[in-house]
Structure formats: structure tokens, C-alpha cells
Amino acid sequence: MEWYEINKTYFTEHYLSADNPRSQSGHGGDEQHYFHNHFMLLDIITKSGSFIDVGYANGYLIESLNKWLNGINTLQVDFYGLDISHELIHLAKKRLPNWKDKLYTGNAFKWIPENKFDFVCVKELGYVPQKMEESFFEHLFNNYVAEEGRLILGPYSEEKMSRELEGQLSSWGYIPSGYIERSHNKSINVARRILYFNK
Questions:
Q1: What is the four-CA torsion angle of 73, 23, 106, 115, rounded to 10 degrees?
Q2: Number of domain units in the chain
Q3: CA distance 83 to 111
Q4: In Å, what is the CA distance from 52 to each residue of 16, 57, 153, 190?
Q5: Starting at the edge strand that comes first in sequence, how are the strands of the sheet with 77-83 ordered?
Q6: Interior angle at CA 5, CA 2 and CA 7, nearest 5
Q7: High-pLDDT (> 90) share of the chain, %
Q8: What residues are paired with 119 via a beta bridge?
Q9: % pLDDT > 70, the chain
Q10: Pairing state of beta strands 190-198 and 145-159?
């Protein structure tokens, strides 16, 4: 579908033109900013198990989570990644050879894993055209998340007074099991949020 090809080409070229791993994963700030924006995911990983990052890019998120987890607890988390861009997955396999057999290339809306995961993390629903976001969310929840597993949406930024994304999901019949919120390091009016949905 042309929409996917246009977006894949744009983000692949944009990420590969960057000169550091954070930017190659789509993040424009420094390491402190990255830590502030993503460390909150550790509050969601509450047990040992499997974790897939949907929209993996060059793997910097998984690399960081693995490092942070090893520094604070004894959970055993088996990390996987999925991205639509063959070039970005190729880069990730070069950067992280120990995970190369756990990295997949595919369209997340069409791809179905052989085994479901305890934690499925997708940063946003914008990996598909807007009119397909509800179906995309349902696809992830039904086909990716193991029994007693958890679908994680975020971290994302949103105006503190807004609950737009939560309201959208609730209107589809998906009430979050919980959420985590942190202050934004650049704006007092913006929050960093994660919504999660238990199965």
C-alpha cells in the first residue's frame, strides 16, 4: 500500500542520515532527555517474560531498557523487535548482533508472531492510516499479547489537561488497566504518559 511505502521511505532515510544511535531511533534529544522520556517504561515491566518493541528502528530503546533493567533488578526479559524497514532492521542487527535472531521485518498491521509476548510496546498508533487505528490496536491486542500479558501504548506526550488518547481508546471499548504519567522535561503544560492494557 502506497501509504506504508511513503512513510517507510521517509523515516528510513531520516533515521539513517543521523549520526548517533538515539537519533537513528527517532529521538532528537541528548541521553539525559532520552532517559527522562523512556525510563518510565520500567514501571510497566513487572515480571520476567518476553517483550517486543513494535516500531523497533535501530533498537536503541531495547538496548537502553536492557541496560537499565540489569542495573536495578533481577527480572529476566527476553527482548524482540519488529520494524517495517528492512534497512533499519539491518542496522539494528549490525549494532546488536546478540539479538539478530529476534528482530523481524514486517508491517505490524499484517504481521502475526508465531508466539505471543508478555509485553507488547507500541509508541503510537500512527503506524497505520488514521481510519485504521482502531483495527490496528485490536490486531496488536488480539494477536501479539499473551494471556496475562500487557499491551503498552507510549510513552507519548500530551497536554496535561487532555485525555484525548485515553478517551479515543475508551470509545472503542478498550479501557486502560492503568496509566503512568511523568512531567515533561521541557514544558510544565505537557505530560509524558503510558497507557497499558492487561489481557
A1: 0
A2: 1
A3: 10
A4: 22, 12, 12, 27
A5: 103-105, 77-83, 49-54, 117-122, 145-159, 190-198, 178-183
A6: 110
A7: 78
A8: 51, 150
A9: 100
A10: antiparallel
pTM for the structure as a whole: 0.95
| 113-136 tens-digit pLDDT | 999 999 999 999 999 999 999 999
Q: At what angle do helices 86-95 and 2-16 cross, to 10 degrees?
A: 40
The rounded radius of gyration (Å) of the Cα atoms in the chain is 16
- 143 contacts 112 by C-beta, under 8 angstroms: yes
* 8 Å CB contact between 64 and 34: yes
Between CA 80 and CA 95 the distance in angstroms is: 14
Q: Tell me, what CATH number does 13's domain have?
A: 3.40.50.150
Residue 136 identity: F
Identify which of 196, 110, 190, 182 has the alpha carbon closest to the alpha carbon of residue 157.
190
Q: Residue 121 belongs to what domain range?
A: 2-198
Per-residue pLDDT tens digits for 18-76:
888 888 888 887 888 888 889 999 999 999 999 999 999 999 999 999 999 987 777 89
Q: Which three cell numbers stand for residue 164?
A: 484525548
User: Who wins on pLDDT, 116 or 183?
Assistant: 116
